[in-house]
Amino acid sequence: xxxxxxxxxxxxxxxxxxxxxxxxxxxxxxxxxxxxxxxxxxxxxxxxxxxxxxxxxxxxxxxxxxxxxxxxxxxxxxxxxxxxxxxxxxxxxxxxxxxxxxxxxxxxxxxxxxxxxxxxxxxxxxxxxxxxxxxxxxxxxxxxxxxxxxxxxxxxxxxxxxxxxxxxxxxxxxxxxx
Length: 178
What we know:
mainly alpha, 178 residues, 2 strands, 4% strand
């Protein structure tokens, strides 16, 4: 047993420490930590609405009406159907925080870039109605949201370091110039 613990401490702990210090993984970790309260509340509400006990389901239906579970699932659906939007913003926010750059600008840039990368669907050819399916802004779009946020924030920070920014005239307020 001591040999296994010694091996873990000698070989895996330095690797784990280096991984924990990596800025991109730290930004993703920080984004999920920031979003965790919403995930917990949504998950608890899902357990309340879908508890697998027939007596519980009957009691809740009698106490709150037949559509009680649909009402409780609204916050769950709101959290998990829009998760990629929040994670996209938060990953960029956390990475910009690491670089000391404007966090809000990076977050908004990443969010807009994610929305650009999200596929739209034409519902009616004649009417020209185009919609964005909720499935891609939910958990299905998390990978694109995280990778896109990291890439766009890196690009934003690189452009700022190289001073490749738009110079505003003197009459523009300082808050807008940044």
